[in-house]
Amino acid sequence: MTDHHTINSSGSVILIFFLLLVCLPFNSGPTLKYALAVLFTAASVYDVCRDTQRCRSIFHRLLKTPVAWTAGLFALALLISVFTSMDPMYSARKFMEEAVLNLGLYFSFAAYCATTDRDTGWMDIIAWAVILFLVFYLGLMMQWAFSHAGRLLLEIPGKCDFPQSTFWDRIFGYGNCNQLVHGIKHTSFFLLLGISVSFAGIIWKHRPWLHVPACVLSFLSLVTTTRRAAIIAAILGAGMAVFLRKEARRHVLVAIILCVALLSTLLATGKGRYFLRENWDLILQGEIEKAKEQEGSIPIRMLCITEFSKEIMKHPFRGAGLGRRNIRRRFPGPCKDLGISHPHNILLSLACETGIQGAIALILLVIAQARMFIQAFRRTGSDQTKMLMAAALIYMCTFWLAQLATYSFHHGTSTLYWLFMAIPTGHAVSCRASEIS
Description:
There is one protein chain. Helix content is 75%, strand content 0%. The chain is mostly helical.
């Protein structure tokens, strides 16, 4: 009877995990994501806590880790910002989403993964979720590229001037103008997850028939979003693999050559205008203010660093409160001058919202996670665990590098991060417990 319930409960957790993962890259509103996240957290807690002694043991081990302490500090910094907020009720709602819901999901699922002694094949599940998303994403892209009767799910009619656009305008405009798959939001970070997981699978020669197409198609789709920070982060993340496995050098070299060849071809054939939108002559001459007045976002991001840093240091420990609305209210000068609603940098944005203590807490949390995964990678003798830890480290590299040029650590993107990071966290805790016993 116990085994039967274990199988059913585990099956429900895996099913909800898959559904939530497929749902996250779509810009489809919060209701479905919240419902699936709450249901998933409840299913994970139920599976772990059916055995009271096991429940106490695993949560005791999990909450003793540096990751738990630093996550607590991060949550405390977010909570304090609610009381210093210019709109406390608005910030309280953000706190419930980013701290209570996401961190609750993270620790409950990590506990579930730590108690699962069977090979669930999480990386394969993620790869299949990515492929399912890509079938929809690329299929809808083809409809946009070739249809002359009208394009489905246009975010703002006429925004991208499609009636007069070329084929390549439609390809590279699709990821930023379609209301379901807005590339600047959740989609690009989901594709980074697909690249990271599948590239780790390729390096360990694990089901290449699944992970090779998932990795290649994810990167090609990422390029169509024209998210330059994410594209650069993906290439650098792949390069990081040489530090994790000697045999990866050949794979990394091939991947970098193919990426450079692809981007060079785009530049040589006149497609560079989709990626190089700034006046680089002015930027290289140090004329950032003049460059800002022309097309492109890099001058604005460069000015964000100086302008918002000055404002933050006037009251470094007093945040405006969670949410972009509060940033606009507390820092109207830089927002108005630069024509933005927030600094395009995760650390600056957190410092604006929570004070510098929030940014410091996040840095400590990321360091604690990386340290945990590196230790598990070194200690384990299991190739499956090494592959999982490598995927986690590659994704951390790509995710946070991309976040340095934007602020998307909220809503579906932050849920995606905590959802995936729970898997290596749980396995790392389980590996450590096995060593002690």
